[in-house]
Amino acid sequence: MSGSLVHIPRKKRFIHVLLAFVTVIVLYQLLVPFYTDEFDYLSYRRISDTSKANIDAFKANSSPDVIRFYEKFKYDTSLEYPTEYDLQEDFFKIKYGSNKGEYWDQVKDVKFYDSDPRLEWSVLAYDLMQGNEKSDDKIPFAWYDWIDSHDYNKLLSLKENKVDCEFLFHNAFPRDKLRLAEGEIGERLFSYDRDSYDNDKWYERAVNNSDGNVILLLKKHYYVDPSNWPTSNKLGNDGNGSLTDTMMSYDNGVATLDLFDKVRPEVYQLQARSYVINTLVHPLSITIMNSDKESYQYLVDRDSRKNIITSGRLQRFIDGHGPETPRKSIKFDHINKFKQFVESDSAKEHKVVIDEIIANKQRQSDDSMPYVVLNENDFEFDAMAKIKELEARSDDLTPHEKSYLDSLKFSTSFHYAFAPKYFLESSHVQSFKKYGNHFDKRFFNGPLIADPFQMEMRLDSLIRNYQKFVKANGLISWLAHGTMYGWMYNGRTFPWDNDADMQMPIKHLNLLAQHFNQTVVLEDPSEGNGKFLIDVSSSITTRVNGNGFNNIDARFIDLDSGLYVDITGLSVSSTPIFDIINYYKQQSKNVDVNDIKFKD
To answer: Are 450 and 565 within one domain?
Structure first.
């Protein structure tokens, strides 16, 4: 009968199972040696896992170039570039648009360029070493120089098909405008889910998810420069917010004024880049790291957006090589330039010294002790006494201290139940599950979560750089929560953990706020290319859960991705002790410390 079960005799069932078992065993015996040998060959550096015979076999059967390549690819963590930075090819050559392949004649003609550490560091170090600035002078700054703007630069290359306001506020890019823009750019505008735009059903669903209200309120979110649009293009007249106290330095004709993250990740990526470049307020300073030894801080000019071109910094660097030096001969040896800078008078004058740290003799950079001494008063902080202290010397306060004083006054001026949420995440990005919560709303730069290896490297870099930063400046901090557990297991981040956590004593959290809030931290270029913003909450004096919006006290934010380290201060507070703590106290009474793992 159709659909009825066929009865198989018990003897046949046994034979089928036996044959299946034998087949598995045979395949296992055939395949395992192959994979084991391959693993041994490719992991020849791991002596504990590979016999010397296998290492010798790998070397004997592989060319020296292959061995060197694999060794460098898999194990070498030194920072090297395969080629030197070429001023003519990497800076003056036009990468996108109708003039792709041509060259700009002069520095002032360049309309866009990719941020490259070799370029930025060579020019910055050279300028700082000139010795013309006084210790209280402010240096020019532009976010554009210190963030990844590769995809946004493609929009800057457009002439006849410039994008309008709506382009960056629909849930998905308007497909016709996208295709016109890509035709002029000469390549795809983005890569994530780009093929889906050619699927009619997918695109229809994506368009239908657009929020119509934001289009009606577009003036709140975007600015249009009418003078910067082709006369035949009326799409840019949708209308006009205001770029108050900012300068339109990157002339694609539009600029994000207010972020709206209820769009797809590829749309929000370019919207957020536009916001950072054209609208976001500058940091108070940049802090340059010399590994984990010391740091140097320079105040920033917050009133203008002058990049390496508009500030004249790059031209001065070129002129320093002599008027007859051809572009091909100009070297961007940023590591040596940085080493020279560290030895310069400018670095010595701007070295960060925190008097409170020196007075307490708690500098972490003292490697004579394998531990850091914590005192009970490290977990106590009197906000009102600190306000009085700062007000008493108001005429001598640095910009960081003035900002810190204002923050303390603000934090103590309202009840914690009404404290506004300070940190904003890109939590509403569409088709991105819940992962947007792990990215700062301002610096979101695409769906990094889609690349788990890149994600892990970014998180590792964040943790390493924050630890180097606190050590160099004598602050005290330690791993916490999932970050600590990951380190205890194998020294790595858990694959499901998409952020990092650190804790500090409340006194050191306030030192962080007093001396480093709103500073951009630049990693030692001989160790990496990290660029991070330190951002401290406006409710730093609140030590209870309150309304639950501000349990994180500060963040260490990666400018290139928006990933961050959550920083929490530990202190005495009015919060009652939970019964669970007494339970664990009783349970640990008879614990033998010699049985505790990871105690070192």
So the answer is: yes
